[in-house]
Amino acid sequence: MTPGKTVNFPPEPSADLALFLDFDGTLIEIAEAPDLVRVPPELPSLLRRVQTVLDGAIAIVTGRGLINVQALLGPVDLTIAAEHGAAIRYAGQSATPQSTSHEPAWPVAWKPQLAKFAQARPGVEIEPKSGGVSIHYRRAPSEADAARDLAASLAEESGGAFVVLPAKMAYELRRPQVDKGVAVRQLMETPPFKGRKPVFIGDDVTDEDGFRAAEALGGYALQVDRHFKGQPACVRAWLADFCAMEKGDVE
After folding, report:
1. What would you give as a GO molecular function for this chain, any one (predicted)?
2. Angle between helices 43-53 and 232-242 (to 10 degrees)
């Protein structure tokens, strides 16, 4: 495919697009802690309607765990690439995700270190995932350096099995071969995404791999701050424009 072009505005809704959407900060507003987010009541039905118009070519690509995203969205049967693509569940499949890696989960030996770290620093939160772990300091910004140092130390202990991924007010330990770009490329090789023009929307440095993948595949990279005024509500409004299309229409 011809590489995509940098755009100043989101493309017009079109039925030949494939949408890859980050979750926190993109579809929903960021909260002080991952478990304090509020999902707009209209979001699940909005995503379901866009899914219908695009014949299923819409996916959530997020750092959150699969079960967590499913719980937040309720009964919507979407394709979800969780934990930056470490686990992918296609729409219509069972709740068991398809793993993109056969590497073991993060070391259990880290648990006491992480627990002790958070206990000594009120406001710091540890978010365990099936294949990695995040250290959040949004409610304790003065602990940013300490969180970074701990993440770097644990990554070094792993001997390269895990790397540090900086995020908004967090540091995440994940496997080096896992990122949102890999997830996008994998999904784009399968129906209903194959043959379409990918659009990746995100707000964080963790989304940059997804941006690059979408553009390399001839699509669009849309940054929430730049293209949607920094407001997930504007992303949702753009998605709502798809619902005015008839299924199968191409602009």
Report:
1. trehalose-phosphatase activity
2. 40
Q: Which of 16, 22, 209, 249 is flagged as catalytic?
A: 22
Domain range for 169 is: 110-174
Average pLDDT, the chain: 90
Q: Is 209 a catalytic residue?
A: no
Count of CB atoms within 10 A of residue 198's CB?
A: 27
List, for residues 60-103, the tens digit of each pLDDT value: 999 998 999 999 999 899 999 999 998 899 998 865 555 554 44
H or E, element range at 89: strand 87-89
Shared domain check, 238 and 133:
no
Q: What is the Cα 166 distance to its own chain's centre?
A: 14
Give yes or no: residues 197 and 162 share one domain. no
How many whole angstroms separate alpha carbon 91 and alpha carbon 85?
15
What total of structural domains would you count in the chain? Answer: 2
State how far the Cα of 136 lies from the Cα of 130, in Å rounded to an integer: 17
Span 46-68, pLDDT tens digits: 999 999 999 999 999 999 989 99
- Has residue 170 been placed in a domain? yes
200 lies in the same domain as 89: yes
Contacts 24+ apart (CB under 8 A), 107-112: 107/157, 107/158, 110/154, 110/173
Neighbours of 74 (CB within 10 A): 10
Q: What is the pLDDT of residues 133-168, one digit of tens each?
A: 999 999 999 999 999 999 999 999 999 889 998 888
Specify whether 182 is located in the same domain as 116.
Answer: no
Diameter over CA atoms, the chain: 56
